Amino acid sequence: MCGITGCVSTQDCVPLMIESLGRLAYRGYDSAGVAVCDAGGIKLRREHGKLENLMALLARQPLSGRTGIGHTRWATHGRPSESNAHPQTYKKIAIVHNGIIENFMPLRAELEAGGHVFSSETDTEIVAHLISDAYETCADFSKAVRIALARVRGSYAIVAICADCPDELVAARLQSPLLVGLGNNMNFATSDISAVLPYTRRFIFLEDGDFVRMTHDAVSLFDAQGKIITREAKTIEWDIRAAEKQGYPHYMLKEIFEQPAKITDTFRGRILSESAEVNLDAPVNALELENVSRIQIVACGTSYHAGLLGKYMIEKMARLPVDVDVASEYRYRDPILKPDDGFIAISQSGETADTYACVKMARAAGAKILAICNVMDSSIARASDAAFYTRADPEIGVASTKAFTTQVASLALLAIHLGRKRNFLDAERARTCLEALRRVPSEMEVMLEQSDDVRKTAQKLLRANSFLYLGRNVHYPIALEGALKLKEITYIHAEAYPSGEMKHGPIALIDDRLPVIVIAPKNSTYEKTLSNLQEVRARGGRIISIVSEGDEDLSKLSEAYFTIPNCDEFVQPLYSVIYLQLLAYHIADLLGHDVDHPRNLAKSVTVE
Ligand code: G6P
Fold first, then answer.
1. CB of 379 closer than 6 A to ligand 1?
2. What radius of gyration do the chain's Cα atoms show?
3. Are 233 and 213 in a shared domain?
4. Which residue owns the Cα nearest ligand 1 atom 5?
5. pTM of the predicted model, to two decimals?
6. 170 and 293 belong to one structural domain
């Protein structure tokens, strides 16, 4: 969703801000803009559409200044257009905003009644007007921002500049991520670590209700009353190259190929082969989730599919009941959560608004909260009792891949850990499971070599206008994930069903135009899935299957098939999902879609 960058420096900050907007583009956007303070006041450039449009405008109408703000907008209030793009300005004030101002209608009506004229349909513009009014009264820029935001309900990350204070940025956060980057003779306010990672690794993670005033060499934080507060700066270890394409045509393909390395990183130091134990990080161990009476998992999108696999794994290995919910459903259905329950929030970004809201509910209920996140010190990680980090490095492709497999790998470690602690998993079985996990990265490397074969199959499927994905047991969440990947980046309809449910509806869809993607490696439900597939075949359905090496029965029924290593059922999803990621990627690429920036989607959904 929307991305924010703000910079106060001793040099022209516009080139740096444009570069940084490029690093924010992955979040999803439909317009972009920058504003600077210079001797003549606030100067603004905005364009509808791609960042290239803004760059072309800047080439025609150059801009420079030592203090500036920039934004990539994903429309919520007001259609995508130049006038609705950010920064929004009023008189001496310009602001960029992520989030939603919930009471913007009455505020706008009030301002209009007072003679204010608006130039956009956005909720954001009212904040610029409110700051401007407050500034005219108090003549103190940072105080004016505080006065204005006290009137606002909703969520925001806001960065503002003022024509009278050309060497100053003022920023504030409430339920929308915002960080301060501490550079050398320059400081930043940004929604995203990777936006300014080439310039600094030192960040202050703002908390809800924080305000910050910064110049190129000083940063001061204060609360809503203007009282000075302190927050510790943290150093981010991410490798900046992780946010580059490194020769791949798309981030998504690069990230698919990175999975063996990132799973290795996720395992590092956490598998104790000698004792057949899992060494979770100290705060996670200290949570003692093995003593809870049940676990509630909450997540959105791809992370939700990882959560579904978590249920299979934790229930099987640790015999601990697990419920899994989509966060946007959970938060509004008056769920039952008790202090002796465990609560796991899974989120790549750690900023998804609905998941974050559920964590706050779990906190109010007194449950033990574990976050499984990729982004260190993200809002969800900080709001939880402990965070388990997936170590996938920045994920830029909107369609999640390496975040998913590292989440599944993390949940597998957690399941084994809980199984050992609860004495349901003996050392021998734990050792076998851990060995199976350890083999995943190298076996996955071999599978990835089949990417060209997957592309050849993709080529034959380009005319399909709907796909059915079938899987059973641990492969049902993988079927869901495969269908989601396809929808996200190819815009082709896809539906996932548990194979055993086929006779209850989807079988009516089957004809010789419907590709049926079947995930059926050899496991406890293999025979049953095979019967389901005979039924598909008997109706002329096109079967593309993912099978265990050496499975001739299923491969004979299939128009195309891809093999995964013969392995324990619980690691099979880590393999089978790879082909589904590749299939979606190659179909999207062959159809000419912008794989890394699928239409309407955002990487991080920070509003409801
Ligand atoms: C968006 C992204 C998905 C992601 C989901 C949850 O929909 O496009 O890739 O799975 O949000 O995000 P999270 O950061 O909470 O895992």
1. no
2. 25
3. yes
4. 301
5. 0.81
6. no
